[in-house]
Amino acid sequence: MAIDKSLQTGSTGMLLLKLLEGRDLYGYEMIELLSDRSNNVFSLKAGTLYPLLHSLEKQGYLTSYEKAAETSKVRKYYSITSKGERFLREKETEWGHFTDAVNRVLRGGSACVRA
After folding, report:
1. In the chain, how many domains are there?
2. Is residue 87 part of a domain?
3. 82: domain range?
4. In this structure, is residue 40 part of a structural domain?
5. pTM listed for this prediction
Protein backbone atom coordinates (compact mmCIF):
# COMPACT_ATOMS: atom_id res chain seq x y z
CA MET A 1 0.00 0.00 0.00
CA ALA A 2 1.37 3.40 -0.98
CA ILE A 3 1.60 5.90 1.87
CA ASP A 4 0.58 9.52 1.30
CA LYS A 5 3.84 11.50 1.27
CA SER A 6 2.27 14.27 3.35
CA LEU A 7 2.10 11.83 6.28
CA GLN A 8 5.89 11.54 6.15
CA THR A 9 6.57 15.25 6.18
CA GLY A 10 8.42 16.32 9.29
CA SER A 11 9.23 12.81 10.50
CA THR A 12 12.10 12.01 8.15
CA GLY A 13 14.69 13.99 10.13
CA MET A 14 13.70 12.13 13.29
CA LEU A 15 14.02 8.81 11.46
CA LEU A 16 17.48 9.68 10.15
CA LEU A 17 18.64 10.63 13.64
CA LYS A 18 17.26 7.33 14.93
CA LEU A 19 19.30 5.42 12.34
CA LEU A 20 22.43 7.31 13.41
CA GLU A 21 21.78 6.51 17.05
CA GLY A 22 23.14 3.03 16.42
CA ARG A 23 26.26 3.85 14.42
CA ASP A 24 27.80 6.29 11.98
CA LEU A 25 26.47 5.87 8.44
CA TYR A 26 27.06 7.27 4.99
CA GLY A 27 24.22 8.47 2.79
CA TYR A 28 23.52 5.38 0.70
CA GLU A 29 23.59 3.22 3.86
CA MET A 30 20.90 5.46 5.39
CA ILE A 31 18.72 5.18 2.28
CA GLU A 32 19.00 1.38 2.31
CA LEU A 33 18.57 0.97 6.07
CA LEU A 34 15.55 3.27 6.20
CA SER A 35 13.94 1.39 3.34
CA ASP A 36 14.69 -2.00 4.94
CA ARG A 37 13.45 -1.06 8.41
CA SER A 38 10.24 0.46 7.02
CA ASN A 39 9.43 -2.42 4.66
CA ASN A 40 10.03 -0.05 1.74
CA VAL A 41 7.55 2.58 2.96
CA PHE A 42 10.36 5.13 3.20
CA SER A 43 12.37 5.27 -0.01
CA LEU A 44 14.45 8.43 0.01
CA LYS A 45 16.26 9.74 -3.01
CA ALA A 46 19.70 11.34 -2.65
CA GLY A 47 18.18 14.68 -3.66
CA THR A 48 15.91 14.49 -0.61
CA LEU A 49 18.39 12.94 1.82
CA TYR A 50 21.36 15.27 1.52
CA PRO A 51 19.48 18.56 2.05
CA LEU A 52 17.97 17.00 5.21
CA LEU A 53 21.39 15.90 6.43
CA HIS A 54 22.87 19.34 5.76
CA SER A 55 20.01 20.97 7.66
CA LEU A 56 20.43 18.61 10.63
CA GLU A 57 24.16 19.29 10.63
CA LYS A 58 23.62 23.05 10.50
CA GLN A 59 21.33 22.76 13.54
CA GLY A 60 24.04 20.87 15.43
CA TYR A 61 22.17 17.55 15.57
CA LEU A 62 24.82 15.66 13.65
CA THR A 63 28.36 15.97 12.41
CA SER A 64 30.08 14.56 9.35
CA TYR A 65 33.53 13.33 8.45
CA GLU A 66 35.16 11.70 5.47
CA LYS A 67 36.64 8.23 5.54
CA ALA A 68 38.18 6.05 2.84
CA ALA A 69 36.15 2.94 2.05
CA GLU A 70 37.62 -0.47 1.21
CA THR A 71 37.29 0.44 -2.47
CA SER A 72 39.52 3.50 -1.90
CA LYS A 73 36.50 5.71 -2.46
CA VAL A 74 36.12 8.45 0.15
CA ARG A 75 32.70 8.47 1.79
CA LYS A 76 31.09 11.10 3.97
CA TYR A 77 29.84 9.60 7.23
CA TYR A 78 27.34 11.18 9.59
CA SER A 79 27.26 10.89 13.38
CA ILE A 80 24.60 12.02 15.84
CA THR A 81 25.68 14.59 18.45
CA SER A 82 24.56 14.80 22.08
CA LYS A 83 22.35 17.72 21.04
CA GLY A 84 20.90 15.47 18.32
CA GLU A 85 20.25 12.70 20.86
CA ARG A 86 18.34 15.13 23.12
CA PHE A 87 16.37 16.39 20.12
CA LEU A 88 15.59 12.81 19.08
CA ARG A 89 14.25 11.98 22.58
CA GLU A 90 11.99 15.06 22.42
CA LYS A 91 10.74 14.11 18.95
CA GLU A 92 10.10 10.50 19.99
CA THR A 93 8.01 11.71 22.93
CA GLU A 94 6.16 14.19 20.71
CA TRP A 95 5.56 11.47 18.09
CA GLY A 96 4.17 9.15 20.77
CA HIS A 97 1.66 11.77 21.92
CA PHE A 98 0.69 12.53 18.33
CA THR A 99 0.15 8.90 17.32
CA ASP A 100 -1.79 8.19 20.53
CA ALA A 101 -4.11 11.12 19.77
CA VAL A 102 -4.61 10.03 16.15
CA ASN A 103 -5.31 6.45 17.22
CA ARG A 104 -7.83 7.62 19.85
CA VAL A 105 -9.72 9.57 17.19
CA LEU A 106 -9.60 6.67 14.73
CA ARG A 107 -10.90 4.30 17.40
CA GLY A 108 -13.76 6.58 18.33
CA GLY A 109 -12.19 8.05 21.46
CA SER A 110 -11.08 4.84 23.18
CA ALA A 111 -7.80 4.98 25.03
CA CYS A 112 -4.76 3.46 23.38
CA VAL A 113 -2.31 1.33 25.27
CA ARG A 114 1.28 2.01 24.23
CA ALA A 115 3.73 -0.83 24.29
Report:
1. 1
2. yes
3. 7-105
4. yes
5. 0.83
